[in-house]
């Protein structure tokens, strides 16, 4: 069922210039086929980051985490869809109605335009948030239980998957099935810094737990040889069926 490793590794382009993007993509060459465009890059250069990557034959996860009233999120996603990204996302905490409205509108507009509908996934709880911080914002439910509840809501709403930490991947996979996407940030190769992530795992551990895609940024971007770093991660990923 799973795609090959280079379609499951998503490299985060956390830059604010196209020059930096082109430099890293050139260094990684054919080793990496999937990239994440997040807020930092999108707010700096707009949609051209997505369209350039698509022209280069790369897949794109446009990670803008939409969270607003249902019609606003649905309209925003439909606008973003025309950039050509393969995957878009919203915050699951926007609720069932917001997610279902977004998914329904996205599929309808894609069908009317005659274009492939991007995968739509939902943020559960950000991987930078620890259990202590979760309680600090007034949450009484255990963090892991909240993640699983949000994942089930996303599935009920008709979304293709969620973003969740490696620690919750196994429970989500069991609850939501084999075809449900689980995109996991907070992946750090052994011996690298956790940076600002709290709930982390190695690439192999994340995949063994049930993750379908791994989002990795700094361990590749900051390496002396980014291509060698990416290929080492891919080699580790290939050991997992």
Provide an overview of this structure.
By secondary structure, the protein is an alpha/beta fold. The chain has a single domain, classed as TIM Barrel. It is built from twelve helices and eight strands. Strands 1-2-3-4-5-6-7-8 form an eight-stranded parallel barrel, surrounded by six helices. Helix 9 links the parallel strand 6 and strand 7. Helix 5 runs parallel beside helix 6, helix 8 packs across helix 9 and helix 9 runs parallel beside helix 10.
In the predicted model, the low-confidence regions spanning at least 5 consecutive residues are 193-198
Question: What profile does the largest beta sheet have?
Answer: 8 strands, parallel, barrel
Which oligomerization state do the chains in this entry correspond to? single chain
- Please tell me the overall pLDDT: 92
CATH architecture level-2 label: Alpha-Beta Barrel
Strand order of the largest sheet: 1-2-3-4-5-6-7-8
Describe the structure concisely for a colleague.
The chain is built from twelve helices and eight strands.
């Amino acid at each position: 069922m799973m795609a090959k490793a280079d379609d499951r590794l998503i490299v985060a382009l956390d830059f604010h210039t196209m020059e930096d993007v082109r430099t890293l993509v050139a260094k990684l060459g054919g080793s990496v086929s999937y990239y994440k465009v997040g807020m930092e890059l999108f707010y700096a250069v707009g949609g051209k980051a997505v369209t350039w990557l698509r022209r280069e034959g790369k897949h794109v996860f446009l990670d803008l985490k939409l969270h607003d009233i249902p019609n606003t999120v649905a309209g925003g996603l439909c606008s973003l869809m025309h950039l050509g990204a393969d995957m878009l996302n919203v915050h699951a905490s926007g609720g069932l109605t917001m997610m279902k409205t977004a998914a329904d509108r996205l599929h309808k507009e894609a069908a009317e335009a005659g274009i492939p509908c991007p995968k739509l996934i939902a943020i559960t709880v950000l991987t930078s948030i620890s259990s202590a911080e979760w309680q600090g914002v007034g949450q009484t439910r255990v963090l892991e239980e909240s993640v699983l509840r949000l994942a089930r809501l996303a599935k009920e709403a008709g979304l293709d998957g969620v973003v969740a930490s490696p620690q919750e991947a196994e429970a989500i996979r069991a609850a939501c099935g084999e075809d449900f996407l689980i995109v996991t940030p907070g992946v750090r190769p052994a011996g690298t810094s956790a940076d600002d992530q709290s709930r982390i795992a190695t690439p192999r551990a994340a995949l063994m737990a049930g993750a379908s895609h791994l989002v990795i940024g700094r361990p590749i971007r900051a390496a002396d040889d980014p291509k060698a770093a990416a290929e080492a991660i891919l080699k580790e990923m290939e050991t997992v069926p």
